[in-house]
Design brief:
It contains 11 helices and 8 strands. With about 280 residues, it is of the alpha/beta class. The structure holds zinc ion.
Length: about 280
Amino acid sequence: MLRLLKALILAVALLAHRWGHAVPWRGDVVYRARVSEKLAALTFDDGPHPEFTPAILDILERYGVRATFFMVGSSVELYPEIAKEVWERGHAIGNHTYTHPANLELLPDWAIRREVERSAEAIERATGERPVLFRPPRGRFGSKAAAVLSGAHQKVVLWTVSADHHEAKTPHEMAERVLRLIRPGAIVLLHDGSTPARWKDVVATSMLIEALRKRGYRLVTVPELLRSELKEMSSRRDDVQRGAGDPPSSSGRRSPGAKARRGITPGRSSARAAVSA
Ligand SMILES: [Zn+2]
C-alpha cells in the first residue's frame, strides 16, 4: 500500500515537473497581437531572394506598407545588399535560422545555438542591427529549442494565418484564404524565397494589400503590432486603476471600474520583451 502511494506521488511529481516545463514556453510565443484596432502584419519567410525580395519591396513601396522579413542567414550572406535594402526601406527583419533545418527541435542544443547565432551575425553584418525576433522553420520547435532561444534573447513569432497552403493554389486563392481568416492583430505568413513558385506570393501580396485596405486594415510591422498591443493593454490597466478608486455604487449598478475589469486582457511578457529588446 505504502509502495503504491509512493509510486502515485512520484507519478504526480513527474507530471507536475513536465507540466511546469511545458507551459511557460508555449505562453511566450506570439501568434497574433491582442488589439481591437484593425491592424495586421504581413511577414515574408525564407529570403532574401535576388528576384522575389526586390519585387515585394517595390509592391510594399508602392502602397506605402511596411512588413517583416524572417531571413535565412546563409541567404543573407549571399545577398547582403538585399538584406540591407530591406532594412533601409524601414521594414523589420527577424531571424529564420542559418540553414533552414526541417525541425529545429531534433537538433542538439549546440546546433540550435549555432543556427541562431550564425544567422543573427549575418543579419547584423548586413544591416548593422542584431535581430530579436525569431521564426523557426515550418513553425516547428519544442521546449528544448525554446530554452536555447530564450537564452539567446530571441522572441518567437509564428503566425495567425498562412497564405501558402495546399488549399490555396493560385495567388487569388491565397489572398482569398487570408481574407477569410483575417482578424485584428493577425500575423500573415507569406514567402519571398526558397522555391521558384514564390512568384505567387509576389502577386498575392498586392491583391492582399488592396483587399485588406478596402476592409479597413492598416498594415504594420510585427514590432509595431506588438507595440500597439502593449499600448492598448496599458490604457486598459489605467482604466481599471481609475475604476478601482470609484466609490461603491449604491444603486447596485456596475461601476465604470467593474466594466473595465471585464475587458481586461491578461498581460503578456512576450510582447514587452519583443518591443523593448
Ligand atoms: Zn521557412
